[in-house]
Amino acid sequence: MLLFVGLGNPTPDSENNRHNVGFKIIDAINKKFSLSKQKPKFKGLLTTGNIEGEKIYAIKPLTFMNNSGVCIRELLEYFKFDAEDVVVFHDDLDIEFGKIKAKFGGSSAGHNGIASIDKFIGKEYSRVRVGIGKPKNQISTADYVLQNFDEDEQININKITENITDSIGDLIKKKLDLFSSTVNNK
């Protein structure tokens, strides 16, 4: 049993923001693997199903990025998940645009969504960090992550999302290095 979490903000004007790449990945997983219809539960939009013989729960927290941990803790307590069975998909400024890095544990590196999850469930979970790069001009980091992807970036993010869903079996088996390598080399 695994819990996939996609981080983002639930407002319609946030849909194509860089900060919402986690939501995009959960949507792609739901579609590709025909998970259940999204239902509002545990302060998020929850889907369930099976992927490669593994029971999967996938959620997009509706608590806004900075309070993502509230939603995740409720789910873990209800379903008796261990934190190590959680995989969080999120944007990362410190990674080159379009690259991903999967890892277990670690610091939040200033990402407020991750800091919130750490506060509520600890740091012993997996993360799939999707590179959005750093702003190329004088824009603040906060404004940059809340901007929409431009047309070229959107095409690249769609490709990365497809690569992630195509390689999901390695993620389910917790082969994080192989998953990262496969996704980045497609």
What is the H-and-E element order?
Answer: EHEEEHEEHEHHHH
| CATH class category name | Alpha Beta
The outline comes out as globular
Helix content: 25-40%
Tell me the fraction of residues in β-strands, as a range: 15-25%
Keywords:
Rossmann fold; alpha/beta; 186 residues
Secondary structure layout plus pairing:
Elements: E1 2-6, H1 21-32, E2 39-41, E3 44-51, E4 54-61, H2 68-79, E5 86-92, E6 100-104, H3 112-121, E7 126-131, H4 141-145, H5 151-166, H6 168-172, H7 176-184
Parallel strand pairs: 1-4, 1-5, 5-7
Antiparallel strand pairs: 2-3, 3-4, 6-7
Helix pairs in contact: 1-5, 2-3, 5-7
3D structure, described in words:
The chain is an alpha/beta fold and 186 residues long. It has a single domain, classed as 3-Layer(aba) Sandwich (Rossmann fold), CATH 3.40.50.1470. 37% of the residues lie in helices and 23% in strands. A hairpin with a 2-residue loop joins strand 3 and strand 4. Helix 2 (68-79) packs parallel to helix 3 (112-121). The longest helix has 16 residues, at 151-166.
Brief digest:
The protein is an alpha/beta fold. It has seven helices and seven strands; from the N terminus they run E-H-E-E-E-H-E-E-H-E-H-H-H-H.
